[in-house]
Amino acid sequence: MIDFYTAATPNGHKVSIALEELALPYTMHVLDLAAGQQKEPWFVAINPNGRIPAIVDRAADNFAVFESGAILIYLAEQTGRLMPHDAKGRSLVMQWLMFQMGGIGPMMGQANVFYRYFPEKLQPAIDRYHGECSRLFRVLDGHLQRHEYLAGDYSIADIANWAWVRTHSWSGVPVEGMPHLQRWLALVGGRPAVRKGITMPPSSLDRHASADKAEQFAREARKMLETGQSKGAD
Questions:
Q1: pLDDT (tens digit, 9 = 90+) per residue, 94-104?
Q2: What domains lie within the chain, and their CATH numbers?
Q3: Among 38, 196, 200, 212, which is disulfide-ready with 16 (CB 3.0 to 4.6 Å)?
Q4: C-alpha angle with apex 5: 59 to 154, nearest 5 degrees?
């Protein structure tokens, strides 16, 4: 059994999708990021960085794993699934996982901050992060023109990137004109485990939210930024 500490963020959903794909038994503990639960001593003992997601593997002497990418690798290696066993295949998955961890996630996260959360609209910063997100999306689109999935078969690389790219509208980054990326978004998003994973837990904001609800969500996120809580997600 796995204890899964999370919230409704792309990084949290990366792990919930993987847990559902692997059909692993888990108990979900949803942390209230606005209340700062991720900074409480009991959780910092699990993740010294005080951010979600994190897991504790009870079957492995209560072994704790933090950082969403590290959790995906751990789960894949423990089960022998969602990552090839040969060195080259494994390297391909790791390359595209690192692409998300070092590029897609940070750039989309900054786009969210400047486009959605900051009350002052700093257009040069918005343009900078929108431009970089678009560039990264084009990298994905070009690669997916020649490949069904990012690294051979469906893998944790697809899970990691999809969980972020699916939120492109919230970041203000369109995917029109990128047919291969759109095809892949629909392909991964159609998997039953993926559909369930993004409801574990459900987000308080979906892509069809009204303008008022979107603004309320942004105000709450802004408060966390102003109080130094950030989003509390890796």
A1: 999 999 999 99
A2: 2-79 (3.40.30.10), 87-197 (1.20.1050.10)
A3: 200
A4: 75
